Amino acid sequence: MYSIISALNGSDIFVSADVTELIDESSVKLIKVRASLRDGLLL
User: Fold this and answer.
1) pTM of the full predicted structure?
2) Around Cβ 5, how many Cβ atoms within 10 Å?
3) What tens-digit pLDDT sequence spans the chain (43 residues)?
């Protein structure tokens, strides 16, 4: 799961990706993601 979060944070599209509800090490209930704007469009 942490590799997914790391990949999202390493992307040039997403500003941030944070786990907001962690059930256990292998199960995440909610991931909060903020995306960047490109040409006025939210990706």
Assistant:
1) 0.41
2) 16
3) 677 777 777 777 777 666 666 666 666 666 677 666 566 565 5
Instruction: Match 């599209």 to its residue by tokens.
Output: 13
Two structure tokens written together for 7:
């990949």
Q: What is the DSSP string of the chain?
A: -HHHHHHHHHSSSEEEEEEEEEEETTEEEEEEEEEPEETTEE-
- Classify strands 27-35 and 41-42 as parallel, antiparallel or unpaired: unpaired
The C-alpha R_g of the chain, in whole angstroms, comes to 12
